[in-house]
Amino acid sequence: MTATELPKDATSQENQVENSVMELARLASLAAPALASTSLEKRNQTILKFAEILDSRRAEILEANAKDALNKDAVEFKSGRMAIDNSKIDTVIAGCKALVAMKDPLGAIDFAKELDKDLRLYRVTCPIGVIGIIFEARPDVLPQIAALALKSGNAILLKGGQEVEQTNKLLFSCLQEALRLEGLPESSATLLASRSDVAALLKADRYVDLIIPRGSNSLVSYIQSNTKIPVLGHAEGICHVYVHHSANIEQAIKVAVDAKCDYPEACNTMETLLLDKDLAAENQLAILTELHKAGVELRLDSALMTFCTTSGLKSKPATDRQTGSIVTAADEVDWSREYGSLCLSAKVVAGVDEAILHINQYGSGHTDAIICQDNSTWLKFFNGVKSAGVYHNASTRFADGFRYGFGAEVGISTSKLPPRGPVGLEGLVTYKYKLEGAGHRASDYHGAGAKSFLHTDIEKK
Q: CA-CA to 189 of 20 to 30 Å: which in 82, 171, 315, 390?
C-alpha cells in the first residue's frame, strides 16, 4: 500500500497528508492482529518467497538503483551508502534464509507460575504491533527490516530517503508481491511517499506503537523531539578503540585499520583512537603510520602531534584541514565528532581508567573496543565502559545484526534499557501476561480467612 497523491493548496495539502497517513496507519493497525496470528510456517514461507522474488528481480533492482544514481544526490553513491549491488542483494537473501532458520519469536513462555490450584500465570511473547521505520540512504535496509517484521508478526510503515526513491519502490513492490502470493494482508506493509509524511506519521500515536529511525544525527534527534511514540535508535556512533600497553601490536594495527577503514560511513566505525602512554613509542607510531598509509586524516592531541611531526608524518595546520591523508592538531570538539569518513581523532591516555573516563564522557554508548593481552585490564574495561557493545581484541565493525547471527537488524539502540546494540527479532517483540483460572476471585485472597497463594513454578515446555 502506498501513500496517495495530495492537492496543491498548502493548508489542505497538510491536512490531506495527515489524514492519508492516519488512514494508512489505521489500516496497518487492523492488519497487525491478523499477521500476529499467522503460523510460523506461513511467516517463514512469505520470507522465503520475498527472497526468491528479490533474486529473480535483481536486474530490475540494479536498474532502479542506477536511475537513482543519476539524481542530484548522485555524489553520495561514491560512498556506497545509497548503492545496491549483487553482493548486497546476496547478503539480504542470506539474511532472509538465516531468519527462517530461527525459532519462532512469538508465543514463547519465559515465566510460568501456579498462583493457586487451577490459577496459572504465564508471560508470553507477542508482536509490538505497528512499527514505523524511517531510514535514509541505504536501500538494503528496506528488505532487511521487512523480513524481520514478517518473522516477528509486526505491521510496518516504511519511509526511505527520496535519494533512492526508485530503488525503494522496486524493493517494496517485491515485498507486496510476496505478501499477495502468500495471502497475507498487503496493508501490513506500507511505503510512505514524501517527507511531509514523516511529520504526519509522528502524530499517529493512536495506531503506531514504535518508531525506529535509521539515519543522520539530525534525523534521529528530530524524531525523538517530535513524537509521543516510543523511539528506538541512536543519534550518534562515536566508537573508540583503546590500545593498552600490553597489546599485541600486529593485532592492534589490524583492528584499528579495519575499525576505521572497512566502511568509514558506518555508525560502528572507530572515530577516536586512544593510545596508552606506556605503549612503546615505536608501536604508537606504527599504528598511526598504517592508518595514515590507508588514507586516514589524523587529528592528534598535543603529545601525539609533537611526536608524529618529529617522526616524519606529514602535517598541516588545523586551519588548513581538508579531505585527504594529512595530520592536524585536534580540537576539543573533535573528541565528540562522528566523522563518517576517513578521518579520526587520536590521543594518549594514562592507562585504562582514563580511557574509560574518556569513552564515557565523549562516546555515544554505541560500541568500544580494547586491544590488550592482560585479562584483568580487559575485565576492568568491560565493566567500566557504559556502551551497548564492549569488545576485546576485535573491530567495532562487528556491531551488526547479521554478524551477530540475528539474520538482520532493524537498527542500533544505545539506550540503557533493552533492547541494546544491534536490534534483531528480540527487539521487535514484547510480552503479555496470560492468566487462566476457574472462577477465581481476588477478594478470596485478603481479609478474614484469606486464602494463600502457592506461587509454585510451572515447568515451561
A: 82
Alpha-carbon span 94 to 100, nearest angstrom: 10
Tell me whether residue 433 is exposed, middle or buried, using C-beta atoms within 10 angstroms of its C-beta: 0 to 12, 13 to 18, 19 or more.
Answer: exposed
Per-residue pLDDT tens digits for 75-128: 555 456 788 999 999 999 999 999 999 999 999 999 999 999 999 999 999 999
Record the cell numbers describing residue 394, joined without a space.
576485535
Angle CA 349–350–355, to nearest 5: 50
Q: Which pLDDT band, with edges at 50, 70 and 90, does 43 fall under?
A: very high
Separation between Cα atoms, residue 52 and residue 50, nearest integer Å: 5
Residue 206's Cβ-count burial label (10 Å; 0-12, 13-18, 19+) is exposed
The three-state secondary structure class of 307 is helix
Residue 83 in grid coordinates? 548503492
DSSP one-letter string for 310-348: HTT-----GGG--SSS-EEEPPGGGGG----SSEEEEEE
Fold matches, 10-225 and 239-404: no
Which grid cell is 347? Answer: 590521543
- All cell numbers assigned to 294: 590507508
Contact indicator for 332, 321 with CB cutoff of 8 Å: no
Contact 217, 338 (CB under 8 A): yes
CATH fold group of domain 239-404: Aldehyde Dehydrogenase; Chain A, domain 2 (3.40.309)
**Mean pLDDT throughout 7-31?**
83
DSSP states of 374-412:
-HHHHHHHHHH--SSEEEESS-GGG-SHHHHTSS--SEE
**Secondary structure of residue 170 in the 3-state scheme:** helix
d(CA 270, CA 258): 9
* Lookup: cell for 444: 478470596
Sign of the torsion angle spanned by Cα atoms 345, 346, 349, 352:
positive
309's grid cell: 611531526
Q: Can the peptide bond before residue 317 be classed as cis, meaning omega within 30 degrees of 0?
A: no
Beta bridge partners of 214: 135
CA-angle at 211, arms to 206 and 212, nearest 5°: 170
Domain ranges of the chain: 10-225, 239-404
- Global pTM reads 0.84
Calpha distance 40→398 (Å, rounded): 29
- Tell me which DSSP letter residue 299 carries: E
CATH of segment(s) 10-225: 3.40.605.10
- Helix (H) or strand (E) holding 435, with range, is strand 429-436
* Three cell numbers, residue 174: 517485491
Q: Could you count the other beta carbons within 10 Å of the beta carbon of residue 195?
A: 11
Q: How far apart are CA 191 and CA 145, in angstroms?
A: 12
Collapsed DSSP state (helix, strand, coil) of residue 68: helix
